Amino acid sequence: MSISFKDLGRSIGISVALALIAPSVMASSFVHPGALHTQADFDRMKTQVAHHAQPWTDGWDVLIKNSHASLSWTPRPQAMIYRGYDGTHRENYAVLFNDAAAAYALALRWKVSGDDAYADKAVAILDAWSKTLTGINGTSDKFLASGIYGCQLANAAEIMRSYRRWPAQDIARFKTMMLNVFYPMNHQFLVHHNGAKIDHYWANWDLANMSSMLAVGILADRHDIYDEAVEYFKHGAGNGSIEHVVWKIYPDGLGQTQESGRDQGHNTLNVALLGAFCQMAWNQHDDLFGYDDNRALKGVEYIAKYNLGHDVPYTTYSNSDVTQPTISSGGRGNTRPVWELFYNHYVVLKGLDAPYLRMAAEKGRPEGGGGNYGPNSGGFDQLGYGTLTYTLK
């Protein structure tokens, strides 16, 4: 899988081509907005929806019909979030993942429509949580909450940071919450893994906390936090580093992924979290999509192929807890709004061949967001709306 500078320059412009060649040179300061989306992305969405172009319009229609993107949404902030029943406290994390989905959906709706009412509502949600939330607890599942919802909240705030009616002191308070509540848990998990053996936790646990760490670093202009996350992606000891997520490369270019023998619901969750991580880094001019000969693509193509009903090679997976001699068919065909991001990057932008990724994106189009895939946490593990936000042409 390769692409020439000459061809890339013709198709996407010299500035992006230069970003591919020398990301470290261009990343001396953070791009804002620059987590999952840049201003150029929002300009594209706004223009295409205004012209009723497809498939952006279908993606837009899914967004505006979602109750999380409504002006009637009312936040429900909590002082403490509990994920995993600890024997005492009732789990309440659903209020956080619903409000995070709403903040993001409303922020998108503002950026595309230009209607400040949606910006005011998005900011109201973010302010409610920054004034209230002091911690996250529960069982070890608390580290899933710190990762998934930390990434989502930071992304919503990154979109809203330029809103003229979000006062600087309120933005600062939100950043402080992210730095005091979410980042320490992200760091603690990746360093100590809750006191467990290094290979105990599945890849999605690492990837969630890596993604939150990266998003918080961008939002707070903290290069040390951002660099910590990128270093873990490249060389981390746990299952979220790229050589452990995609741990077995086959001669046909497919890459077996760490949760393939577990179930396909979690295997496709890895697509969501890995995609978010690579996209945020890309928007800061770090090409982790292409890292180690497009290793992420090899894993995503493997997951897409199997979940479309095709056979894939499989090698017995073992760690200190399990031995899995066969690939799991549990949850096969799982539907998540995760494919457009990878499809548009690898196939549309870079011109690489990924037939199963293409088919998965086409099958899932238009992608919705939180609330479109059921009421449980799995439907909110990814922000979604990829047809609107990631379609390039």
Write the layout of secondary structure elements.
Blueprint: H1 5-12, H2 14-21, H3 23-26, H4 39-50, H5 56-65, E1 80-83, H6 93-113, H7 116-130, E2 135-138, H8 142-160, H9 168-192, H10 203-219, H11 223-235, H12 242-245, E3 246-249, E4 255-257, H13 264-283, H14 291-307, E5 317-318, E6 323-324, H15 339-349, H16 355-364, H17 386-390
Parallel strand pairs: 1-2
Antiparallel strand pairs: 3-4, 5-6
Description:
Residues 75-307 form the Alginate lyase domain. This is Alginate lyase family protein. It is a single chain. This protein is mostly helical. It has 17 helices and six strands. Strands 1-2 form a two-stranded parallel ribbon. Strands 3-4 form a two-stranded antiparallel ribbon. A hairpin with a 5-residue loop joins strand 3 and strand 4. Helix 1 crosses helix 2, helix 4 (39-50) crosses helix 6 and helix 10 runs antiparallel to helix 11 (223-235). The radius of gyration is 20 Å and the shape is globular. The protein starts with a helix and ends with a helix.
Key traits:
two-stranded antiparallel ribbon, disordered N terminus, 393 residues, two-stranded parallel sheet, Chondroitin_lyas, single chain, Alginate lyase family protein, 56% helix, Alginate_lyase_dom, mainly alpha, 5% strand, 6 strands, signal
